[in-house]
Amino acid sequence: MRHQTPLALLPPAGAAHWGEQVLFSQKVITELAGLNARFISLLVELHGSRPGMPALGLPAHALLPLLRTTGVEERLVLPYALFDLRFRDERFWTYESRAASAVQDGQPTPAADTRLLRFTRAALTLAWHLVRVDPRVARLALGMAPGTQQVLEATPIGLIDALARRTCPAVSARFCTRERFWVHLGGMLRLPPDSGQLERLRLLGLQLQGADAARAQQLHRRLRRSTQP
Fold it and tell me: Are 31 and 76 in contact (CB under 8 A)?
């Protein structure tokens, strides 16, 4: 069977960057690029400490193209996060938020990997900020469900650290089942700067994000129908 390349449909003429221009301020784009760069560094660090082992959902061979990359932050001008923190899972965030704010009379939260904890704290701080600035940006950049937005909007900033400690084990690479995306990302970072490569990566990520959102909505509708009397 012939190898199929992912479909990358161009938006209407003159609208290639409409989403970034309308919704994403330069400050948000810069913060997101910095966080994505930190996530790449985290993947490389975890791979270095356990060579040959998967890291945050990615197999070792998908991590290899990310090694020895340079100028990462300046190249990752993407309208979406490269990491996943189960932002689509409203029940997960409702439970974890309640647990983080409750008085802990039982066993304390197990000690977390400090590298994961630092990254999760930074990711949650950005997410907490985005849901207050513009929920649409949080939805597009992080793939965040409306229920998760409501949870974070109601979360005091003082609980971010406790929430990060509880949720840092959930950090994983976004699109981790689509290895082609990560191979393409690694190739783009290792090649000389090329706007065409970056644009293809933007479109591919947006298409994968749209497919994931459509699948989640379909599952939600099925669940709602199955629970109706």
Answer: no
Angle between helices 160-167 and 114-133 (to 10 degrees): 120
Distances, alpha carbon 217 to alpha carbons 2, 214, 220, in Å:
31, 5, 5
CA proximity to 219, closest of 95, 92, 89: 89
Using CB atoms within 10 A of its CB, is residue 47 exposed (0-12), middle (13-18) or buried (19+)? buried
Look at residue 194 and give its three-state secondary structure.
coil
Q: Which two tokens stand for residue 45?
A: 């660090």
The 10 Å Cβ neighbour count of residue 54 is: 16
Alpha helices in the chain (DSSP H): 18-22, 26-49, 60-63, 72-75, 90-101, 114-133, 135-142, 146-153, 160-167, 179-190, 195-227
pLDDT tens-digit map of 70-119: 777 778 888 899 999 999 999 999 999 999 988 554 445 666 789 999 99
In this structure, what is the dihedral angle of CA atoms 87, 203, 212, 83, given to the nearest 10 degrees?
-30
DSSP letter at 44?
A: H
| R_g of the chain computed on alpha carbons | 18
First to last CA, the chain: 46
Pick 176 or 227 by higher pLDDT. 176
Q: What is the largest CA-CA distance in the chain?
A: 59
Compute the residue count for the chain. Answer: 229
